[in-house]
Amino acid sequence: MPRHTNAIIELDNIRHNYELCVSLAPESNNMAIIKADAYGHGLIDVARYLSSHVPAFGIAIIDEAVQLRQEGITNDLLVLQGCNRKEDILQASLQNIWLTIHSLEQLYLVLKTSLPNKIKIWLKLDTGMHRLGLNQQQFNQALSLVKDSTNIDKNFVISSHFSCAAELHHSETRRQFKQFKLMIEESGFEGELIRSHSNSSAIVGFPEANMEWNRPGIMLFGLPLFDQPHDSDLRLRPAMTFESEVTAIRDVEAGEYAGYGQNWVADKKTKIATVAVGYADGYPRHAKSGTPVLIRNQRAYLIGTVSMDLITVDITGIDNVKIGERVELWGNELSANEIAKFAGTIGYDLLSGLSPRVPRIYRN
Fold first, then answer.
1. pLDDT one-digit tens code per residue, 269-322
2. Global pTM exceeds 0.90
3. Which domains occur in the chain, in start order?
């Protein structure tokens, strides 16, 4: 008999969130970013469901793109990190996979490889994040090489990435966007180039950066986007509900403890429930005592240390809790972002870190 620790994935909510993105940027092509197993929601199932609604998918690495092709996904695919090996570039050429080029070394490799088909590329500019991307001199050099190459489709895209768009009024977002436009202007090809800069937060919070292509990712899965409340929070629908069940109930007397390391000791008689989930499932190991869960539509609170397969929660104030009672860990009524704060991380980490041993149950 399997335990009831599952991730319920509402596919219609993902489509709703994508359609919200399109409504906010109707003049743009909006590529669905589904890297990291679609942020933990299931790469193949999400891609199949969205395939008739989106013009293209973005993934992080070539392996994800190849997997999508093997599963019959025919949409255009962009590998956001590009490729650093000839065999991967050849694979991209054979399977019509687009590649990000973020360094001259990557570009030289594409130019030197004998390819059966031209590759469409996205040239990535470094506008200040200093993680990946070309500077102005490298960009100018890359443009010259690309325009003379027979290996590269001439309808390439120029892109960059915001570092602080989730902080709603951060000055760096405007500065990066200004730098992006300046680099294109100084290249001498302003007005001729296809451009992309907006991620989820920028699509909503900085719409002037919505250009020929946008790259919505986390907003597809319904997490709040900003460091403060925003009206988009009410319009986005969480796509994942992570749930488990109560497997044991007991009373703990004052002075007794629960869990490893005696990190929580009862200051009064307390009724506790043991829940069948732990860090091996992707529940955050560093969640603190006081992290909420929902039982019978009421908040119960984590006590003690998260173990590999189990957690304990204080249910003293909740009546009639029984063995087998459903527990929402995050989802429709309890945002993953809130849980993440108790663990010193972000909601992205929780969603994408969900363990493969947790079954995904799809609804639409």
1. 999 999 999 999 999 999 999 999 999 999 999 999 999 999 999 999 999 999
2. yes
3. 11-224 (3.20.20.10), 240-363 (2.40.37.10)
Torsion sign, CA atoms 49, 45, 340, 209: negative
| Strand ranges (E), the chain | 6-10, 29-30, 32-33, 56-59, 76-79, 97-101, 121-124, 157-159, 194-196, 213-214, 240-252, 270-275, 292-295, 298-303, 311-314, 326-330, 360-363
For 68, the token pair is 């999508």
pLDDT tens sequence across 70-105: 999 999 999 999 999 999 999 999 999 999 999 999
Q: Tell me the C-alpha distance between 47 and 32, whole Å.
A: 9
Residue 170 contacts by C-beta under 8 Å, 6 or more apart in sequence? 164
Structure tokens at 123: 């040239």
- Side by side, the strands of the sheet bearing 29-30 are 29-30, 213-214, 194-196, 157-159, 121-124, 97-101, 76-79, 56-59, 32-33
Query: What pLDDT was estimated at residue 1?
Result: 53
What is the pLDDT of the chain when averaged over all its residues?
Answer: 97
With CA atoms as reference, report the closest residue to 196 among 249, 248, 158, 247. 158
CA atoms within 13 Å, Cβ hemisphere of 9: 23
Question: What are the C-alpha distances in Å from 38 to residues 9, 41, 52?
Answer: 11, 5, 17
Cα distance between residue 321 and residue 337, in whole Å: 26
Q: Which residues are catalytic?
A: 35, 260
Chain segment 175-202, per-residue pLDDT in tens: 999 999 999 999 988 788 999 999 999 9
**C-alpha torsion 265→266→267→269, nearest 10:** -160
pLDDT of 54-64, one tens digit each? 999 999 999 99
Sign of CA dihedral 341, 346, 348, 349: negative
Burial profile 210-246: b = 16 or more Cβ within 10 angstroms, e = fewer: bbebbbbbbbbbbbbbbeeebebeeebbbbbbbbbbb
Helix (H) or strand (E) holding 173: helix 171-187
